Amino acid sequence: MRSVRARAALGATVVVAVALVGAGLAVLLVLRANLTDQAGLQAEVAAREVAGQLALDVPYDRLEMREEEDHPVQVTDEDGRVVAVSKDLKAISGTGTDQVEPAPSPAAGSSTGSDDDGRDDGDDNGSHGIPGRGEVDSGDPDFDNGTATVDGDTADYRFASVQATTSAGVTLTVHAGAPLAAEQEAVGTVRGAMLIGLPVLLLVVAGVTWLVTRRALRPVEGIRREMAAITASEDLSRRVPEPGSRDEIARLARTTNETLTALEASVDRQRRFVADASHELRSPIASLRTQLEVGAAHPELLDVPGAVADTVRLQVLAADLLLLARLDAGERPGRTTLDLGALVHEEVSQRTGDRIPVALSVPDSGAFEVAGSRGQLARVIGNLLDNAERHAERTVTVSLRAERGGVVVAVTDDGTGVPPDERERIFERFVRLDDARTRDEGGAGLGLAIARDVAARHGGRLTVDGAPQGGARFELWLPSAG
Description:
With 482 residues, the protein is an alpha+beta fold. The protein has three domains: 4-186; 248-325, Helix Hairpins; 334-479, Heat Shock Protein 90 (2-Layer Sandwich), CATH 3.30.565. Helix content is 47%, strand content 18%. The chain has eight helices and 14 strands. Strand 11 and strand 12 form a beta hairpin. Helix 5 (340-349) crosses helix 6 and helix 6 packs antiparallel against helix 8 (447-457). 26% of the residues are buried.
């Protein structure tokens, strides 16, 4: 099944069916056990009544056996011979013997403890149930199920077996039965009701589950349709509908819209990046082409230094674009341990042609080891120095210090500084402030963006603030190695 609604309805129906079948079987078993116990209690009462008469030496042919209450009775002696049965009993099973014809008892004849005249041999006991010395077993009786045919009708019975001892010491066993018709009728009625009601209830459960699931998944279908429309139109400004509920589907819709917002921003940023890169590449390429065309027509007018400068500018811009593409692709920096102080020294020492000399302040002692890519970190320091050189008036200072489990490289200049409301914007790609654009002939607005991106991928951060002498102060924090 490909439909969630169908699977949910089927699953709920199966679970309810299993639960109802289990509960129904338990109800039937409990009902059968209770009714069987009631029948056993009735049979025990009937058996003890007859056993009590036998303990009082009532003759077999004078026993009162409650025939009118449909309790078949069979009395057997120690040898298993039948000595008395209830009236109209034609067949019996489940009592140990299927005999229904009383046999003469050698121990007592036709009566217990009486002579042939029906008179008692003792001085105190008569022949009409006067108490003798017999007793009835007070223990729990034995129960068994069987059948009996009474007056031509055969039915199932619950038999109780109770022992009684006459005054003459003869042990007799009374088997009395109680009908199981009520138990069978009740169990059959309940079973029939379950067989009729269970399918109906399962249909109701399946239908309700189907409707509830369809209603619950309706917002999901709306989200799917809108996502399909967004995919077809490629319009990332559209958003999926958010239901008013506070359930998982509402959270899914909100998360989907947040994803679409992030995707739209990423695509817009990528488009701006491509447009800005094309714009930045166009100027040096056009300048270089013009110079080459002029040189081809008039070799004496060829500006070789200008062509070299444009070529270098193209090379730097291509390297920046390549590095940004690698960073956007998720390239992880290396984890080589390096001395950041030595790296700063090396970068500063190579800048012999700078307009303003760089003042370096690095403590003689201290651990400045960090983990990362030597090339990328050197690129960050170089970009910060290039930015300071372009905007400084007279001084550029680089300092190093340990701070909070990391190392801080601070690059300070005494230029005009960065306005507070522009301090985050300058880290965006291809962003140059208006005054910088008039003074900067070679920058494309990628240096600070690359520096912050590399710092973030090394687990650090790059921030800008005002310098004490009025310029800008860039601080690069990187975690210490280990």
